[in-house]
Design goal:
Elements: E1 6-9, H1 16-28, E2 33-36, H2 47-57, E3 60-61, H3 65-72, H4 79-92, H5 101-110, E4 116-118, E5 121-123, H6 140-143, H7 145-153, E6 158-161, E7 168-171, E8 175-177, E9 185-187, E10 193-196, E11 210-215, E12 219-225, H8 229-238, H9 245-248
Parallel strand pairs: 1-2, 2-3, 5-6, 6-10
Antiparallel strand pairs: 1-11, 4-5, 7-8, 7-10, 9-12, 11-12
Helix pairs in contact: 2-5
Length: 254
């Protein structure tokens, strides 16, 4: 772990404008270390530049379910997500007479690890039980208590994930708290916590602002960042291989 604060980003989804704005905020805060919890690609129009920015700027990068589907297929995705993923694949797939950087991007995504533990902190994309695919939702506290027990059993003290695009923290024995309920800061305590960092490229908590996390020595802080949503929407709508819903939802945060 870095001796200073660490920025944690997730679910970028080929949204270059959002990622650029988030890195601008990270740089303005003087944060040197950045972790990425996966889903670099999918949904958005700029997979290559987003991969390259992550490759250059992040000291830890994990595999998300969209990144994995690039290689194993997206048969279990809904049609809109599958079409966008297949479009992203074609935009970065290496081959004869294709730019050499595509091979670099391809190998980078192929070789991503699925989890990382550093001290008492576990980093995943999905959940400690299934680091890539399992969603941990607010409703699980009430409707899937055994699932939450099993998740907490696998957490050393704190775990960090993304995947749902909904920031917040699950506190053992307490339940779920949103950033708004916590004043956008969660102070560490003796209880175990599973912390969702939110989404840079496609927020789904009814707030269209990009979201990322700053990890301090004694707490975490959620940060919201405005970006040029209209510019991304225009790129998506001009790309007839990506459904317009992927553009429409960005303005709604859903």
């Amino acid at each position: 772990m870095s001796s200073g604060p660490v920025a944690i980003i997730s679910d970028l989804h080929s949204n270059l404008e959002a990622l650029t704005a988030v890195f601008r905020e990270i740089d303005q805060r003087g944060i040197q270390d950045v972790y990425c919890l996966g889903d670099i690609i999918g949904y958005g129009p700029d997979p290559g530049p987003v991969i390259e920015m992550v490759r250059q700027r992040c000291s830890l990068v994990l595999r998300g379910n969209h990144d994995e589907a690039l290689f194993r297929g997206a048969d279990d995705f809904n049609p809109i997500a599958r079409l966008a993923l297949e479009t992203n694949r074609e935009m970065i797939r290496p081959g004869f007479l294709r730019p050499a950087i595509r091979k670099v991007w391809w190998v980078f995504l192929r070789d991503l690890k699925v989890s990382e533990q550093r001290g008492e902190m576990l980093f995943v994309h999905g959940s400690p039980r299934d680091p890539i695919r399992e969603y941990v939702m607010k409703g699980d506290v009430m409707f899937s208590p055994r699932k939450m027990e099993e998740i907490f059993e696998l957490i050393p003290q704190f775990a960090f994930g993304g995947h749902t695009h909904q920031p917040g923290v699950f506190i053992e024995g307490v339940g779920h708290k949103s950033p708004e309920e916590l004043g956008f800061r969660y102070e560490f305590s003796k209880e175990k916590g599973f912390i969702n960092v939110g989404s840079v490229g496609q927020p789904r908590d009814n707030n269209p602002l990009s979201c990322f996390l700053v990890l301090h020595s004694d707490s975490v802080e959620w940060v919201r960042v405005a970006y040029d949503v209209a510019a991304v929407q225009d790129k998506i709508r001009r790309n007839k291989a990506i459904d317009d819903l992927c553009a429409d939802r960005l303005a709604l945060g859903r």
